[in-house]
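Protein Record: Sequence and Backbone Structure Tokens
======================================================
Tokens: labelled as protein backbone structure tokens, with as many entries as the chain has residues.
Question of interest: how does this chain fold, as expressed in backbone structure tokens?

___
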Amino acid sequence: MKSNLTATIKGGQIPHGKVRVSGAKNASTRLLAAALIADEPVTLMNFPTELVDARYKMDFIEKCGGKVQVDEIEQTVTVDSSNLEDRLLDSYDFPIRTTYLLVAGLIKRSGIARIPYPGGCKIGDRGYDLHMMVWEKLGATVTEKPDYIEITAPKGFSPGEINFPISTIGGTENALISAATIDGETIIKNAYISPEIESLIEFLRTLGAKIDVVGNSFVKVTGASKLRGSLFNVMPDRIEAITWIVYGIISGGNIVVEDVPFDTMEIPLIHLSHAGIDLYRNKNNVIISPECLVNGKVQPFELACGTHPGIISDMQPFYTLLGLHADGTSRIFDYRYPERLKYCEQLSKFYQGGLKWQPGTITTYGNSNIIGAEATSTDLRGSMALVLAALLAEGESTIHNVEMALRGYNNLEQKLKGLNINIEVY
């Protein structure tokens, strides 16, 4: 779990080979936290075991008495929460963005949860007020301490009604996991339903919770005080899939991307088609080669990032990269996270004059020369975009704080080697 890592990358390497999409970061880390409410062991298969975010969360779980068994070869994680309890730790310095999801398991067993303040990416305002609302609506008392957030519910959470003022992924996840521990009915209104949340709902059902979803935003949860164990498969990562697909397109390489979750990527892939890209695919895999470009070049495009089933904001940096390699001017709009722009300044070092940005809008000018540069990571997906730009550039590049990319891409260095790409991380 090193920090301040630097990558030295030689540009001009053309990828060829196969890369398999790992279990989804945004599903696996949530399932890991949700496993804490089970009264029997839980085994998560297709788990991205080298994911740095997951390792931090495992460390916190073990410090609170839980047992986590990791099998890197089989890509499985087994969680035994029978001895989990709230403990006053010497330090709450954990760079975990979704610390709030750890609360339900601790409340269930101890009636109190002391968790680190949410950490993670600096991509705009991501407060935790909605999570405080969830806990309070379920009967808990929340106190903000200097080093941690303290949530108390001596008899556990109680049934309630949660009406989110805005759609929220993290808030919906928190409400679902917490409600599953309650022996009674909880209503969640204005919930956010994404593929990862659908997976979480299915997992909670395997534990014994009854969950009904009406439309796209109304959820009724009937939980239970006793929840069984589970053997559950983590869905493939749609953000990782689009990362490798875009890289294959703009690199001129010949690659096969395996285990692509096409059913969760319909609209993102339609936008690739509209940019003049014709992908050759079967049920699970896609082959990418220069022949995918119908006119020999990526065509300019305009698109807007938003909620599922559209292009989510985590995919934005890779469509920005695609636009930088298009034959003309492209525009990417993001009104959900309009301040997700910090990486643009760093990316522009590789594409001088090829990129302009303002809140909510990124404009790219294709056919720019790509030169090696020294850049600093600002967020997880932006960091990966910098790595890809460095691989495409002329000359050698240096990427600082590249651990941000390692946080979200399981076994990244080994996967690049599988594509005959080498980077040096130190």
About this structure: The first helix runs from residue 25 to 34.
